[in-house]
UniProtKB/TrEMBL annotation:
Residues of the Solute-binding protein family 3/N-terminal domain: 55-283
Keywords: Signal
Keyword Metal-binding attached: no
Pfam family, one: SBP_bac_3
CDD domains per the UniProt record, alphabetical: PBP2_peptides_like
The Ionotropic glutamate receptor C-terminal domain, residue ranges: 55-282
Keyword Transmembrane helix on entry: no
Signal peptide, first to last residue: 1-26
Source organism of this protein record: Paractinoplanes globisporus
SMART domains named in the record: PBPb, PBPe
Protein known as: ABC transporter substrate-binding protein
Length: 290
């Protein structure tokens, strides 16, 4: 469900966030690596080497799931990744009217070979193996760890980390999720350790634990498709080395530096933080626990 106070269209997102950017503090000089940014001369606004002159073609999967998109309509500007895509387009000099969306399966997007898009946005984790076949922009999202449970659980209405400290929690062994329990929540009871998330989920269902910790994309999937009466309790502060999502481009694309530069601008002026809070924490139903 979309709140009346959230960004409801691509145009609305541009207007609201343009105002935010105007009020943002100046760049502190901590820009991304030289390979991630590009000069205005090499990235002429609205005149990049795109698939179609004057247009920006963006790919994503079909169906496109919430809260990353909304109503399976990437072009409506709603959802975190749709909003990010339109903000990247705007920074590159392409208005919403000059953005075209194409459907591309996840696996095809990261497979070797020519692409039908200028860039693709679809929860792609940046990995060294994938970099052999495609380019990635600098990261637009650092994956957060998230506590989930089921309706009726003692922690279903928890509002803070302190509310979780008396709970029996668990996570997959050797993961950042487990580290989030021990280093951030610090429960009074020793956390349960599982071989995989399926075992953790089974323990939650049978009541062995009050809640489990998984990454946010997994939390959305488990509570939406796998758990009866699944509930997202909330996101935890960042811990460890987070998984990173990046925009995918063709290998050695002439646009990679330009797209990375746009993403870096969005990070530095606070736009990405606004979009994350709007579409993941508020509209998406994954509040931030403190």
């Amino acid at each position: 469900m979309v709140s009346r106070n959230t960004l409801t269209t691509a145009g609305g997102a541009v207007l609201m966030l343009a105002a935010l950017a105007a009020c943002a503090p100046a760049d502190d000089g901590t820009a991304a690596s030289p390979t991630a940014s590009a000069s205005s001369d090499s990235c002429p606004k609205g005149a990049l080497q795109t698939k179609a002159a004057g247009k920006l073609t963006i790919g994503t999967d079909n169906p496109a799931y919430e809260p990353w998109f909304s109503d399976n309509k990437p072009s409506n500007g709603k959802g975190f990744e749709s909003a990010v895509a339109y903000q990247v387009a705007e920074r590159l000099g392409y208005s919403a009217a000059n953005v075209t969306w194409v459907s591309v399966t996840f696996n095809n997007a990261i497979a070797p070979g020519p692409k039908s898009f200028d860039f693709d946005i679809n929860e792609f984790s940046i990995t060294d193996d994938r970099k052999k076949a495609v380019d990635f922009s600098s990261p637009y999202y650092l994956v957060r760890q998230t506590v989930i449970t089921t309706k009726g659980s003692k922690i279903a209405s928890a509002k803070s980390i302190a509310d979780l400290q008396s709970a029996k929690l668990g996570a997959q062994v050797g993961t950042t999720s487990y580290q989030a329990i021990t280093d951030v929540i610090k429960p009074s009871a020793k956390p349960s350790v599982f071989n995989n998330n399926d075992d953790a989920k089974a323990a939650l269902v049978n009541g062995t634990v009050d809640g489990i910790v998984v990454d946010l994309p997994t939390a959305f999937y488990m509570t939406g498709a796998e758990l009866k009466d699944g509930v997202i309790v909330g996101q935890l502060p960042q811990v460890g080395v987070p998984e990173q999502f990046g925009v995918v481009l063709d290998k050695d694309s002439p646009l990679t530096g330009c797209v990375s530069g746009a993403v870096d601008e969005l990070r530095q002026d606070g736009t990405l933080a606004v979009l994350e809070k709007t579409w993941l924490a508020q509209t998406g139903g994954a509040p931030e626990l403190q």
